[in-house]
């Protein structure tokens, strides 16, 4: 009889820390004026796909031209639908963006590179190891994508 798989202890600890830290983050990011946190974090207003419950989810982002890029490894991503408008609070302003879920391994690798160059802290949260040549390990990247990891490209609505 097989045992159910669970996340590694480090990931479980990270999820617990985020649940605690997200409480004051929601308050800070929800303010109607820019805060220092707003340079790297935005607040998503999501509706649960099954329950219809409303959520406010702080997520990190990196600018890439007119787009915002977010690593989409959390369960909050399951409430997104490609191209459906989502209200976000960005630097104290409510805006509407359309999410596009990127799952192509080559494009995910390229966008992760863009994100890591703009914000090296991305590497702490997206734990896909790098090969000796500096690229992301292809098998680890494919495995992450198979288990639902995506890059969310946010485009203005």
Characterization of this structure:
- The chain is of the alpha+beta class.
- It has a single domain (9-156), classed as Electron Transport, Fmn-binding Protein, Chain A (Pnp Oxidase, Chain A), CATH 2.30.110.10.
- Helix content is 31%, strand content 29%.
- It has four helices and seven strands.
- A seven-stranded antiparallel sheet has the order 2-1-5-6-7-4-3.
- A hairpin with a 2-residue loop joins strand 3 (62-64) and strand 4 (67-72).
- The longest helix has 21 residues, at 9-29.
Mean pLDDT: 90
Q: State the strand order across the main sheet.
A: 2-1-5-6-7-4-3
CATH architecture annotation: Roll
Number of β-strand runs: 7
- First-last Cα distance: 50 Å
What is the H-and-E element order?
HEEEEEEHHHE
Helical content class: 25-40%
Quick take:
Helices cover 31% and strands 29% of the residues.
Offer a few descriptive terms.
157 residues, alpha+beta, Pnp Oxidase, Chain A, 7-stranded antiparallel beta sheet, 4 helices, globular
Write the layout of secondary structure elements.
Blueprint: H1 9-29, E1 41-47, E2 54-60, E3 62-64, E4 67-72, E5 86-90, E6 93-102, H2 105-118, H3 122-125, H4 138-146, E7 150-156
Antiparallel strand pairs: 1-2, 1-5, 3-4, 4-7, 5-6, 6-7
């Amino acid at each position: 009889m097989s045992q159910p798989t669970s996340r590694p202890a480090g990931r479980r600890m990270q999820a617990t820390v985020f649940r605690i830290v997200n409480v004051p983050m929601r308050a800070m990011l929800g303010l109607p004026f820019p805060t220092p946190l707003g340079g790297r974090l935005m607040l998503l207003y999501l509706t649960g796909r099954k329950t219809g419950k409303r959520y406010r989810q702080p997520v990190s982002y990196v600018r890439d031209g007119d787009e915002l890029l977010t690593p989409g490894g959390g369960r909050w991503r399951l409430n997104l639908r490609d191209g459906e408008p989502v209200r976000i609070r960005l630097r104290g302003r409510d805006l509407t963006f359309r999410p596009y879920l990127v799952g192509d391994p080559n494009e995910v690798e390229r966008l992760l590179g863009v994100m890591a160059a703009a914000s090296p802290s991305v590497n702490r949260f997206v734990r896909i190891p790098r090969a000796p040549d500096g690229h992301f390990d292809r098998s680890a990247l494919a495995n992450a994508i198979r288990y639902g990891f995506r890059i969310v490209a946010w485009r203005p609505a």
